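Protein modeling request. Please complete all fields; requests missing the sequence field cannot be processed.
Requester role: graduate student
Desired output: 3D structure, token encoding
Chains: 1
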Amino acid sequence: MPAAEDRRHPMRNEVPSHPQPPGVRTARPGDGEGPGAPTDFEEISDSPRTPDERSGVRILRPDDRSAEPRRQVRQVPPPGETLEPDLVDVDDEEPVHTATRDRVLGVNFVGDVAYLAVVEPPDRASLDLADQLQPAAQDDDSRRLANFSARTSRILRDLGIAVVAVARPLRYTNWTYAAAFERVSLETCIMLEAQRLSLRFESVGQHHAANVIGLPAQQLTDSLPARLRIPKTVDWPNRYPAVLVALAVALEM
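Delivered output (253 residues):
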């Protein structure tokens, strides 16, 4: 019986004689009792690896002087203490410039030329900002109109336009198809660019505009410059309808 008990309960320091599979460590009673005791698969000379080497994660320390940009966080002072203001670099965040959109762009088509006039509400005409816009001379209509649309969009953005007013033609009974196609195509380009920029678009009759301003339609060539206190430009006969419709829209804003 004692011999059987010895076989069932090996002695404290006895090690099983059968070999262990590769990578399996035999646990002995008393292992780990001493501080820093090495295991069979660990060399004493091996120093523990740093977190940087083990996980690949970069650990930020107070003495880190890397050149990476940092954003300062506002600190909350303890009760009863005041926090000194920190200097903030001006270049950290670029200011967002927003143009004031309150101007009206008047347009009058004569052939393939769009005569322009800018009016600031209620009745200040700024004729030196833009005078005319004409499509480039290209054989391909699609490219020609695409170029015209791009230039129109740039003018609408740069000048801070809020409303586009196109003067309706007074006479169009004798138009040819080519003339009608050119007029409708260019006006559609302006209309689509205004819609793309979320601007208001209006097609204004010249007689209606004259009634809004309170001037007789037959004398607009002379009475309109006097009303706005502006000189006549060289292309005034073709440009004054653009000034007329832009002024009428600006007065109603």
